[in-house]
Amino acid sequence: MAEPKIDFASLSLFRATPAQTEESRRRTFPQWGGTLSLTDYLARDAMMELGEHSKDGKWITWVLAPRDDPTTLDFMSACETYKRTGLVAYPSSSPSEPNSVHEATCYGVACVFTPPSKRGRGYANHMMSLLHWVNASRANLPEFPEAWGTPPEEVADAGGGLFSVLYSDVGEEFYRSAGPGGKGGGWEKRGAISTIWEVGTEEGDDEGWNWLTEEQLNGLWERDAVRIRKELANMPTSESSYKVERPAAFATYLPTDGVCGFHITKSTFASNFSMADGFWGVESTSDPGTYASWSVDLRPPPATLIVTRLCASEETFPGLIAKIKQAARRSGIGKVEVWNLRVGLKEVAEKTGGRTFIRNEHLPQIVWYGPGTTGDVEWACNEKFCWC
Ligand SMILES: CC(C)(COP(=O)(O)OP(=O)(O)OC[C@H]1O[C@@H](n2cnc3c(N)ncnc32)[C@H](O)[C@@H]1OP(=O)(O)O)[C@@H](O)C(=O)NCCC(=O)NCCS
Fold it and tell me: Which of 81, 114, 118, 362 best tests ligand 1's pocket when mutated (most atoms within 8 Å of CB)?
């Protein structure tokens, strides 16, 4: 029998108890378990909790639950957030000055789920609206709607976020409409663009390239973060590829603290897949600005090598993509995918057989809590490594 509709003011958002966290994972298993058994699915999350990118309170499960029974296992909806370190750049007023770059707290949202028996009552939408109130600085939010009662309690491990991102599998509108003050003002779509190469048969020699194992990649991220910071400082204030002509700010995640690396663990857990020779990245030996890292999408088969972070110039990109295809081929993978190549590289990609298209799944969406509006903000380095 359908449950009666509940007044939103009687509900709030709470950090899940350990029992609620497990219940939430059990609920999402049929949706996202893939070929894992329930035991492996729960074990994967338990292992992920210990990872650099999620430990020390960075990974939080949230539940929408009755205010008078916040620890119930019969909660209405749930989601997860990952606390991240990002960078934001504010354009300089003079073209000869670099943009001012600042470190910022940001959040990734994942696993939004309402059990089938509770769907269609506005629970997930309301939960997403309340999520702004625990992730952002409240000084940056509009007035809390009276009809929702009092704002959710702030949580020590959350808050202070300048922006938040997620990847929608239910279109743009669902998350865009969930704003902090009601309808509208939520997460907006940016760059849902993929480029895919079929992996051919040609082999190349390895001269001029260093293959990177998972451990070796850890040394790359610190250098990559320095490069991203520099890129942001020198980002042109206006460019035709931007969402708006003159962005008020540029925002990006950083790949450090296990943020880029955990994709490998997550995607291969309890499978017997391994990249040939354990290579999960490659870098040029002559150009410190040419490198890539990857993970794999094993489900649904056939497997795809998915590039998590890529850095190259127009000149070095063809060589880099040839190496990535080679890594895929040696591991029995027939396809390579890159998300959101920057403009200059898209054209080079086409010449190397890459097919670029707009995805209708995993839509990157961002909400900005700083000065200006989300519509004025450019998401820099909007690549697969930001996904969670
Ligand atoms: C998507 C989901 C979280 C919505 O939960 P809910 O509590 O029913 O959501 P709400 O009642 O707040 O909102 C329902 C709205 O979401 C829309 N929606 C639900 N599933 C959708 C889908 N797969 N694609 C597009 N829109 C969808 C509904 O059309 C409805 O829109 P309307 O209000 O204009 O009619 C729920 O259907 C679910 O858990 N699905 C499986 C997991 C999932 O796909 N999560 C999202 C991952 S990005």
Answer: 114
pLDDT in tens, 292-316: 999 999 887 899 999 999 999 999 9
Gap from CA of 336 to ligand 1 centroid (Å) = 30
3-state helix/strand/coil string of 257-292: CCCCCHHHHHHHCCCCCCCHHHEEEEEECCCCCCEE
CA 179 / ligand 1 centre spacing (Å): 16
Taking residue 9's Cβ as centre, other Cβ atoms within 10 Å add up to: 13
Q: What is the rounded average pLDDT of the residues 208-235?
A: 96
Identify the DSSP state of 93: S
Other C-beta atoms lying within 10 Å of the C-beta of residue 167: 21
Pairwise CA distance, residues 16 & 60, whole Å: 8
Q: Is ligand 1 within 6 A of the CB of residue 113?
A: yes
The Cα 362–Cα 367 span in angstroms is 16
pLDDT higher than 70, residue 7: yes
Residue 255, both tokens: 């790949």
Question: Predicted confidence band at 2 (pLDDT cuts at 50, 70, 90)?
Answer: low
- For a ligand 1 pocket test, name from 5, 109, 174 the mutation site with the most ligand atoms within 8 angstroms of its C-beta: 174
Residue with CA at minimum distance from ligand 1 atom 46: 112
Distance CA 126, CA 179 (A): 9
Bridge-based pairing of strands 363-368 and 209-213 is: unpaired
What's the one-letter identity of residue 6? I
Average pLDDT over residues 198-217: 91
Q: For residue 306, what pLDDT is reported?
A: 97
| Ligand 1 centroid – CA 113 distance (Å) | 8
pLDDT > 90? residue 201: no
Ligand 1 center to residue 369 CA distance, Å?
24
Give the per-residue pLDDT at 1: 47
Greatest C-alpha distance within the chain: 67
Enter the tokens of residue 263.
Answer: 């994709």
pTM, rounded to two decimals: 0.96
Cα 170 to averaged position of ligand 1 atoms, centre (Å): 7
CA of 255 to the centre of ligand 1 (A): 30
Q: Evaluate: CB of 305 within 6 angstroms of ligand 1.
A: no
